[in-house]
Amino acid sequence: DIQMTQSPSSLSASVGDRVTITCRASQSITTYLNWYQQKPGKAPKLLIYGASSLQSGVPSRFSGGGSGAEFTLTISSLQPEDFATYYCQQSDSTPFTFGPGTKVGIK
Amino acid sequence: QVQLVQSGAEVRKPGSSVKVSCKASGGTFSRYTISWVRQAPGQGLEWMGGIIPIFGTANYAQKFQGRVTITADESTSTAYMELSSLRSEDTAVYLCASSPYCNSTSCYWFDPWGQGTLVTVSS
Lengths: 107, 123
Hints:
The structure holds 2 protein chains of 2 kinds. By secondary structure, chain A is mostly beta strands. Chain A is built from no helices and 10 strands. Chain A has strands at 4-7, 10-13, 19-25, 33-38, 45-49, 53-54, 62-67, 70-75, 85-90, 102-106. Chain B is built from no helices and 10 strands. Chain B has a 6-stranded mixed β-sheet, with no helix packed on it. In chain B, strands 1-3-8-7 form a 4-stranded antiparallel β-sheet, with no helix packed on it. The A-B interface holds A 1, 32, 34, 36, 43-46, 49-50, 55, 87, 89, 91-101 and B 35, 44-47, 59, 61-63, 95, 97, 105-116.
């Protein structure tokens, strides 16, 4: 199985900050990497698919990058509604696996 | 855009089974794959398996092989996930999610999701 790791596991930031989360795969997954946002008690929401494609309706302050085994999710200017947990997920091969999550909190 | 609505919360005893449904509306059921993902309390996300309704074939994570059965009924646009031999560690929110159908795993991003079904396993 492909193992996914994320760093940091949590961070504190202020509104307006630029935030970057890193996701690493245990082997190359080309660009088969997706990002989700999850708020407490809610289902995850797809933000980015194929490493860098912005899902329809997602604000342009979210962007994704990377290829191979290292990927990033960047929020260019953190907004109050962005405080949540973020997960990466590989869709290179089954079983599809998720990273452990990065919790973005308020500083 | 397809919408997914799941069945309600369940409480089961250890050793029993549970079957959760996921009804799709607003889209063409056969043009999607449906996956099941679970999330234990305070934990991360775990893919259990998925099905392509138009083919009726399911693919399971090895961890759940033999205990999980995923099916789909095209006539009602509903997918089902049945988990047997339940134990306390299976207490979790079970979510269904759709992916666009394509010929490879590369399209397995999950959107949209159902609202989740809490399954509690307790004696």
